[in-house]
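Subject: design request, 358 residues
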């Protein structure tokens, strides 16, 4: 189906404006007055669309593309056909995103799903809650007593904002989110279905039963954090659970109590972070990786997908495997296991099949 599209460009840009925005260098003779109305992939772009190329595997698509212009890496610029104006730039994807952001500013932050402003009919806002002007609350949302919400923030339908929760300005709280025992900064995006601020998983186990440990602290989410759909973040038990400024969290991530996450970390889908783990600034956790409790992952460290971290990782290192270890050691082990599986490099020879024995 070709209709409807849910985002429409807010403006158009000439190639000259794109050059100024991205710092790209146009090839000789590029029509700088050409108007770009949209962005698209090389194979789908039309005469008023901007595409980009930074991977040589798509060179065949470049030669066939009908795009109005293409942001292209310097090493590939010579391959641009004469009919397609090339804008040469060091990082084509980053430049492409800058143009997309300029054309589609509304796509950067979720809007009201009800299309309204202010408190919609059917929303329940406690008289003791405090909402600044410009707050939007969609139908079915609940805002508890003592909650404070800053101007420009949108609370999606059926979201629940618990007592005393504070949410800063220009935030987006998605449909069905529950947000309790939390302090949220400015420009935070929390996508639908997140559960934030509930009890951490803490019990004193024993043969007579398991005694619940009171979870007494908060979740603190700093400015410019984005949290993907279905993610859960437990509040702290003995210290706050903290999500640092600018950190980006994918869908379906589990963050346990007392976790401290630094600034500008990237946590990919289905990661599990056990209680009291510390991630320093700029850490990257690959999809479906996990940590044991009380480990420290140093600044700038990266963990490969599907890895299990059960010991501290020094700053700046890349680790992978299960259990995780420095990437070079992990790859050496994988190569050694592969050689053994093929009957090479020592070890037992593969057992012959019955057919080979006769």
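Subject: RE: design request

Done. Sequence follows.
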């Amino acid at each position: 189906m070709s209709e409807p599209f849910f985002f429409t460009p807010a403006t158009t840009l000439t190639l000259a404006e794109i050059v100024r925005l991205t710092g790209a260098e146009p090839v000789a003779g590029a029509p700088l007055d050409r108007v770009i109305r949209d962005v698209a992939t090389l194979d789908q772009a039309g005469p008023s669309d901007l595409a980009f190329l930074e991977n040589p595997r798509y060179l065949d698509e470049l030669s066939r593309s009908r795009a109005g212009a293409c942001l292209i890496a310097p090493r590939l610029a010579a391959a641009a056909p004469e009919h397609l104006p090339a804008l040469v730039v060091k990082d084509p994807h980053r430049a492409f995103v800058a143009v997309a952001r300029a054309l589609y500013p509304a796509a950067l932050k979720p809007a009201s799903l009800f299309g309204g402003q202010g408190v919609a009919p059917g929303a329940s806002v406690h008289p003791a809650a405090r909402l600044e002007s410009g707050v939007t609350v969609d139908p079915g949302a609940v805002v508890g007593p003592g909650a404070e919400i800053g101007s420009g923030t949108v609370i999606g339908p059926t979201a629940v904002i618990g007592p005393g929760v504070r949410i800063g300005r220009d935030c987006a709280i998605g449909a069905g989110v529950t947000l309790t025992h939390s302090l949220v900064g400015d420009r935070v995006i929390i996508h639908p279905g997140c559960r934030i601020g509930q009890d951490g998983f803490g019990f004193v186990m024993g043969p007579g039963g398991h005694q619940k440990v009171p979870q007494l602290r908060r979740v603190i989410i700093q400015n410019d954090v984005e949290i993907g759909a279905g993610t859960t973040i437990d509040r702290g038990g003995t210290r706050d659970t903290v999500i640092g400024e600018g950190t980006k969290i994918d869908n379906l991530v589990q963050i346990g109590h007392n976790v401290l996450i630094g600034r500008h970390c990237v946590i990919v889908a289905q990661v599990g972070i056990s209680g009291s783990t510390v991630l320093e600034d700029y850490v990257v956790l690959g999809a479906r990786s996990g940590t044991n409790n009380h480990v420290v992952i140093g600044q700038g460290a990266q963990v490969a997908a599907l890895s299990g971290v059960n010991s501290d990782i020094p700053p700046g290192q890349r680790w992978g495997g299960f259990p995780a270890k420095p990437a070079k050691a992990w790859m050496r082990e994988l190569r050694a296991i592969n050689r053994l599986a093929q009957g090479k490099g020592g070890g037992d020879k593969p057992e012959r099949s019955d057919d080979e024995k006769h």
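The domain at 13-108 is CATH 3.40.1390.10 (Udp-n-acetylmuramoylalanyl-d-glutamate--2,6- Diaminopimelate Ligase; Chain: A, domain 1).
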